[in-house]
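Appendix B. Raw example, untouched.
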Amino acid sequence: MKNKVYQPATISEALDLTNSEKDFIFIAGGTDVIVNSKQGNAVADVMIDINGIEELKQFTVRENYLEIGTGITLGDISRDNRIAELFPALREAAISVATPVIRETATVGGNILCENRCNFYNQSEWWREAVGYCLKCNGDICIVTGGNRRCFSKFISDTAVAMIGYNAEITIVQSAGEKIIPLIDLYTGDGINPFRKEKESIIKNIILPTDKNFRSEFRKLRPRRSLDFTSLTSVVTIDSNGIIRIALGGVDPMPILITGSVNDNLDFLIQNAVKKPRVIDNDYYPRRYRKQMIEHFVSTSLNNLLKI
């Protein structure tokens, strides 16, 4: 049986569909959802295509804030002059995702909601059956660690890491109304259920402060400079008040955030960034190497931003 597909024109229409259709999944660009569906990792009878909702495709300038609609593509993010000027690490993050063709379809909302990945999960159905089902696909053990209580599939959104570095918030819309939360609070740290979000809700926009005069640096580790998902993403920002934010992705089931100030012991901040992530061997690069690269990325970025 083929999936039933709806194409609502407004957020309200999309939310109404969630009341009448229980086994559904939202889709926008589809670059993550469709691949996972083909692998049997994202199965639903109904797809609610929100790509036609214009409200999700707006850049809105407000006093001290820029609101980015979650339906805006990564290609548009990479070309926007305001992003390039105020949030250059976000532009670099968008450019680093996948390939040019994929970026013209993939949305920023889809990227911050990318499903966590693991070498033992993101495989074909027959491969997973042969090696043994893991916790993330209804098995009873984590194949990497041998444990049976926790999934450590890695968080892989590059744009989310950049926006967390810039202290972003998001607007979540559901039938009961809207709420604004820090983007970092969207993520649970649970590899199986990585998002602190009701299934029936939609993220409308991302809110970035424009009055902090951020200095920032973006770095990414991966086997190839195109297509490959991240093995480590780091964004270090320093605002006009001397607040340091170190955001990491690809090394834990959720984005990691370390905060401090230019007056703190920088070696302590760096070591905290190395120790906090729960890095395991579920990636192309071994755990020890990724830990070493965290220290290298963060220390180099801090040195460059502070001109040490």
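End of appendix B.
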